[in-house]
Request: fold
Amino acid sequence: MQQAEHPPKKKITLSGLRNAFKLYSYIKPYRGIYILGLFFLFGSSISNLAFPKLLGDLVNSGNEGNLGEDLNRIALLLVGILIIQAVFSYFRTILFVKVTERSLADLRQDTYNHLICLPVKFFDKRRVGELNSRISSDISLLQETMTSTLAEFVRQVIIIVGGIALLTFTSFKLTLFMLAIIPGVVLAAVFFGRFIRRYSRKAQRAVADSNTIVEETLQGIQSVKAYTNEFFEMFRYKEKTLEIAAIGIKAGRYRGAFSSFLILGLFGALVAVIWRGAMLLANGDINAGELFSFVLYSGFIGGTIGGMATVFTRIQRFLGATEDLFEIFNEEVEDLTETISTDPDHQLGGNISTKNLTFEYPSRPGETVLKDISLEIRAHQLVALVGASGAGKTTMTSLLLRLHTPTKGSIEFDGKDGRIIPLSTLRSQIALVPQDIFLFGGSIGENISYGDPKATSEQIIEAAKQANAWGFIQRFPEGLDTLVGERGTQLSGGQRQRVAIARALLKNPRILILDEATSSLDSESERLVQDALEHLMTGRTSIVIAHRLSTVRNADQIFVLDEGSLVEQGTHDQLMTIPKGKYRNLSQLQFIP
Ligand code: ADP
Ligand code: MG
Reply:
């Protein structure tokens, strides 16, 4: 199973940033709240910045011995700032969360709406798991970035720029000295730390590998013993454990070096700054309070620079996620319409003809699946498509529904090019009972009404009766409300098929397509399903794909496909007279007489 991984990091490029800005258009409707949030963010960051300065003043006033007024005033000011900060950060958080949640709901809807309107060929080249993670984890990542990361970034810039400005104000010389040491040391620490994390992941992978050996060999212990491979496995496991030990020891060496580095580098840098500051203090260039707040600011700035590296990584991931999303948005959707009131101009009569129909799947160019097929089906006919597995029968049906576009040639409905008919109007008049039936996890009733969401329960029951499904549905204590389980697994194959037929029946289509609707049934269910099918086929054009259905015998026309070509056509009796004919051969091999 594919895990929902974070998208890969992307380099920060201009086009990436442009995409990110496009995403910010989702915030536009809520910009009032957003700006208010930014105001609170600025406010809390700036008051944060005042903190070390006031602490320094506090030290000074204590140092100068003027207890009382000054000291209390500054302490009160500090408490005041703390309160402001607390209030501001509360409002900042709730405002940003509000904006983000709402704009992400919009973005989620847009992504899903776009996705579901994409043509089938798009889904042929993507995995569902991957698309699913677009909507779930990528968008959650955007959420994190848009609220906390952005806020964090703004705060960091304010603290670094503001902090340095305030420090320069206190002592230019000391600031230069600090800047020459601290940022370099902090960044080195960040990158060193990351290197070690990467290394420990490598160690984890080695451990996982060794566990696989244990698991597999214990599960397959009979095979291990049957092949007397115990000693081989001992050797394999020994190699792995030695590898783990080697990686672990090396990682330990790095970790040791890292803590030495932290002691020497970070604390050394701090000592250096204080040493230099103390000299300035001795010279009377600065006072004790200033030195105190200077050291605090340096710590602030150092910590913030460290945090910025994390923010940077998150921004890179954010750009990766937006790029993936825009890749989906750039795919062209099908031209679908929501209200399908069948315009009399586009009412199908049921005549179908194909002219030189040729097709190859976009995902597999070069392999022609249908070759130059010209055929004619008249309204209310029952026709059968037969041919070996892989001949192109299912492909033919998806071209009729225009799930795919022909590579060459055309399909006409009542003499009219199918492309003139609006896609939704066309599809709404064709019902397909597909080869692998898909039921949604809800109830039987919900699954039937998928054929016509506006149907009343009487209509649903009527459809179920005609599909020969009402008998078994009635026997369930909960009737139509019986849940079918995930993908319909709590129903038998024959029951699933009859639910699907009821669904198609409810749609009341002009053209009905049954793709091997009885292929995996026992003869009792087949008889029931076939009975149902006969109801379904009256008064409309029906296209049946079947291996051993006796309806094929009764078909008005039978089309025989072989490796994508139409090789024979006619009625059962006509085709049976062709010596060495494909149909005759197939029927002798497959049909139950
Ligand atoms: P049938 O229904 O007659 O068994 P299909 O129409 O399903 O045959 O398949 C015809 C050919 O098209 C097969 O070679 C199959 O591998 C190929 N094919 C079917 N679906 C796809 C697809 N989505 N992408 C690429 N090739 C496909
Ligand atoms: Mg098929």
Observations:
- DSSP finds 19 helices and ten strands in the chain.
- Strands lie at 352-360, 368-377, 382-386, 408-413, 416-417, 430-433, 511-515, 541-545, 557-562, 565-570.
